[in-house]
Structure formats: C-alpha cells, structure tokens
Amino acid sequence: MKLRSLLALFFLAIFSFSLVVSSAKEHDLDFLECLKKAHESNVYTPTNSSYTSILSFSIQNLRFDAPSTPKPLAIVTPQQEPQIPPVIRCARENEMEIRTRSGGHDYEGLSYVSKVPFLILDLINISGITVDAKSKTAWVQSGATLGSLYYRVAEKSRTLGFPAGLCPTIGVGGHLGGGGYGTLMRKYGLAADNVVDARIVDVNGRILDRKSMGEDLFWAIRGGGGASFGVILAWKVRLVDVPQNVTVFSIDRTLEQNATRLIHKWQSLAHKLEKDLFIRVILSRMNIKPNQGGTGNYTIRATFNSLFVGGIDRLLPMMQESFPELGLVRKDCITMSWIQSILYFTGFPIDSLELLLERKQSSVGYFKAKSDYVQNPIPENGLEGIWRMFFQAEANLQAVMIFTPYGGRMDEIAASSIPFPHRAGNLYKIQHLVFWGAAEAARDSERYLSWIRRLYKYMTPYVSKSPREAYVNYRDLDIGANNDNGTTTSYPQAKIWGSKYFKNNFDRLVRVKTVVDPGNFFKNEQSIPSLVIR
Ligand code: FDA
Description:
By secondary structure, this protein is of the alpha+beta class.
C-alpha cells in the first residue's frame, strides 16, 4: 500500500475513534444531566471530593477496590423511596446500566462493579426499620443492615428474633433476595422463608407491593436474587419466638485430638439433631511448634460452634446422647440472650449491643469463596485430603471451610416454595474461603484464586452432582459461563450456573423475568435472562 493511502487510513481511524469517544461522552453528559435534574442532590460523580469515599465505604472485598477496577459514572444515594423511580427512568432513557447496592457484601462485587458504563444506586440512606412486636412483624428498608434489624427487634422484645445471617454489616436488600441463613435456620428456615410482603420498583418505575406485583414476582425475589427483577425497597418480615435465654458453645479440637473422627461423626448426626440445636464446624489451619504432631509445623483446628435455643440443662443430656465424643461439659456452655448470641457469633463482646449498629467492618481484606452441598458423609480419607490442601503455602494467611448443618425446618420446606432449592437431602453446606492481604495482592492474587479452585476440584467426588449445587448468596463467577462484557447472559449459558443456584426453579425464574423485565434492563454477569430477543 502506498504511503499516502496508509496515512489516509490512519487519519480516518483516528477521526472515527474520536467521534465514538465524543458521542459516548455526550451520551454520558445527557445521562448525568437527567440524573441531576431528577435528583438535585445525592448524585456523586468523580469530580466530587466525596465520590471515592462513598464508593469504597461499603466495599467488603478489596479484590474489587483496585485502581484498575471499573468505576461508576455516578453514585446516587437517595434519601427517600420516591426518589428512586426517576433514577431508573434516566438510566433507561440513556441505556445506562444500574447496579443496586444495599450492604455491598456481594462476593464478586456485582453491586458496585460493571464492565460497561454504569451507575451505582446506593441504598445506604434507605434504611428505616419499623418493628411491630404485637403482630410479630417488621418492615425493613433494603439499605438497613442485619445488625440494625436485630438491634431494633431486641429493643422492642427480648423474646423475638429473626433468622438471618451471622455478619451484622450485611445489607437486608441483597441478603433476603438470595435466601439468607444464620444460626436459627434449622428451627425457622431462611430469612427469605420469613418474608411476608415487599415493596419493589419495577422497570417501568412503578412502586409495587405484594398485592400489586403478584405472586410470581413475589416468589422470584425471595431467593432468586433481587438484582434481576427491579430495585427492592423494603421487606416485611415475620419475626420468630426466641426464649429469654439461649445457650452457646465453641469447642476446638485439633487433629491430635481426633478432629477427623469427630467431623466424620458430625456429618451423620448434625442434620438429625433437634431443630433447637445448631452445631456448625469451622476448619482452619493452625501453626504448632515444630515436631509436635500434625504434618510438620501445622495441624487442623475444627471449631464446633453452636447455638442451642434453650437452656443448658436440656442441652447437656441431648449432647451426651447424640454426640458424647465431643465431650461437652457444663463449663463449656454460656447462657445469654438471643441478641447477645449475635454478638458472640461475630466475635464481639456480648454486652456491646451498640456495635450492631456499625455499618463498617473493623477490617476488610481480599478473598475468594465458593460453596458446595454434601449429601453423603465424606470418608475420613477424603477429609485427610482436605487437610493436605490446607498445608499448602497458599493457605498460610487464612483458609477456612465452614460446614453448616441442614435438616430440621430446612427439610420441611418444599424445594419450590421459593427459588432457593437446597432443602431435604442435604446433610450440610460447605463454604470454602481463602483470604490474603495487600502485600500478597500486590505480588500475585492469582495464586490464591488458583488454590481455591484446586480445592474445589478436589472436592468434586464428595459433593452434590448434576448439578453441583451452589448458594447464590455466595456468588461465584467461576461456576458458569458468562460473557466477556458482562452485559447479557443467554439462556443456555445462564442455565449452567442457574441450575446450580436454583435447580428446577431456574426455568420459573426465567419465565417471571421474561414477563416483568422483557428487555433485560436489570442485569449483571449472573442475572436471570429474559427469553425476549431484542
Ligand atoms: P450487595 O449490596 O453487594 O448486594 C448483593 C446483590 O444483591 C447484588 O447483585 C446487588 O445488586 C443486589 N441487590 C442489593 N440490594 C438490592 C436491592 N435493594 N434490590 C435489588 N437488588 C439488590 N450470607 C448468609 O446467608 N449468611 C451469612 O451468615 C453470611 N455471612 C456473610 C459474611 C460476610 C463478611 C460477607 C461478605 C457475606 C456474607 N454472606 C452471608 C453473604 C451475603 O448474604 C450476600 O453477599 C448478600 O447478597 C449481601 O447482601 P448486601 O445487600 O450486603 O450486598
């Protein structure tokens, strides 16, 4: 090609590129203008001095807080519910993606990161809670945290509680939308099982309650992941009875104290215990002095961590009969109110109730998590393979597995009652976690990601199959195909992860989505697809 033609091509390329860039910028300006007109205050763009602190405030996983992480064009923090429909209108008119954030705990950062131009609708100020102890219900807005919900319930009554997650800073909006479990789950099921009404803004900007949204959509948002269907403004929840006092215990056993045999036994009994008794197992690696047992310098610590919804005198004989090998004695047990048990499981001093109102965790780090369901006990030699994985170098900072017992109320609720399908037949759920720090992240985060993927692969023969089930609130982008720009998910692609999170409920979720948001406006890398082709 002649030099002149080459130069012409070069200038043409530059010209078209600048046209695309300037029209993209104009489009962004139109969008921002619309937003500011509709919203006057509470719109933060990168030119605002508080933009970065507002963005980072709710981020719980530093993997998604790097300078290279895509940032939103704007963050909107409405003060009142009626301010939300205009945000949706501006975003739709300008084809701008919305990420709704309540507590920001999403494991893959989906509430505040997107690969296409986007805004964050941050519900941090939509966080009111009204408790009616007489009818045993509460209305709680999505931006409220679990800790504040527990606190407000306890303020009204010491004998009412709510069966949701263990970490007080979790947002109600995302948590109930994905299920939500905690120490009361064997007695009362999931948080989403105890939702009786909700308010949502749909794609047309209408504010709907249970009656006006209809039972199909009301079914979908209780466990199907709210982000696919609209913006959930508030949930009405049924509160549950708790006694004046409950009992807690935490017993550590190492490999040298027969941990492998104890865990092996726990697998067959934890799901069969009375509904009042919840015993989970937390596995971690522990450094010990050289040559004192374990493998080299390390051993495994199994923490049997329990809530009993009753008193010590009933608990001790029950444990003696079902799990004498653990050796639980009276001095291991602590009596406290249910609200104090929330602090106990968080590791806070049990008399510092005000800590439940803190929105920010004292420290956050880099992590990756995965989940599994176990339907047959893992043999002892299978457990020993896990210990070998924990002795690898990548587990040095912290690697944890949490075994959460199922059974009880979880077995009684039909798999199709809400989109969360993991019910009868499951002995327990596993959460696999690996954490690392800023220094390791600066060197090589991939190392830790690859370790947890190896652990997950190792677990294949021991966990549920066809599909290999997963918990949607432990969002994991590894488990299915998602396309590169993260804007659409086709039905066949989505079915890969969809059947893992929702089993047979996935197709009903797709049908609801197709009716309520046919144009697929509410989307993320793992949102429910619409069958309408645009
Ligand atoms: P976030 O705001 O990140 O939202 C999560 C998802 O829901 C995103 O896709 C978001 O767009 C969408 N969303 C949020 N608000 C919405 C709204 N109002 N309308 C529509 N869509 C909305 N789980 C559990 O069951 N039991 C537990 O004990 C724990 N413990 C725990 C501890 C820690 C430290 C973390 C980081 C996470 C957990 N989880 C958990 C998982 C937690 O339940 C899950 O991440 C929830 O989705 C978090 O809800 P947030 O509102 O905080 O997240």
